[in-house]
Amino acid sequence: MASASVSELVIFIAAVSVAASVSGVLVTTVGDVADSVDERGAAVSATIETDVEIISDPGSDAVYDDGTENVTLLVKNTGSRSLSADASAIEVLVDGQYRPASAHTVTVVSDDDGWRPGAVVRVEVDVQPLTVTGDSRATVVVTGNRETVRFRA
Known about the structure:
- The chain is of the alpha+beta class.
- Helix content is 31%, strand content 32%.
- The protein has one helix spanning 2-49, and strands at residues 52-54, 64-65, 70-77, 90-94, 97-99, 104-108, 120-126, 135-142, 145-152.
- It is elongated.
- It starts with a helix and ends with a strand.
């Protein structure tokens, strides 16, 4: 009779140990999932609050300067949050070709200290060694928001 009690006690302790380890793994996994959801929510929120508009007149000669081979774009922050006016925060494509941050400069045009809602930045893109002729397009991507302007070179 005592041997039955001892074996049942051993099985009970083993079951409790397995249950404790499984619950520990589940708690860790649920915590990781919750952190991922929080991070994704913050990223989606930033994307929703970010909006830009290229306000350059595509019909004017101010967009493309064939002497310096620069494309100049005026980009307005039409979103509800301030954005980084750093060249590394703005991605630029000219005729579908990615231009690295080293190939463009960003200057805040308005009197603001930063690129606040309603403020405008000037993005000057060095297109060399690309050949920009005829109908062209430039795309600006900021925090996942894309805006494209078509112009004539």
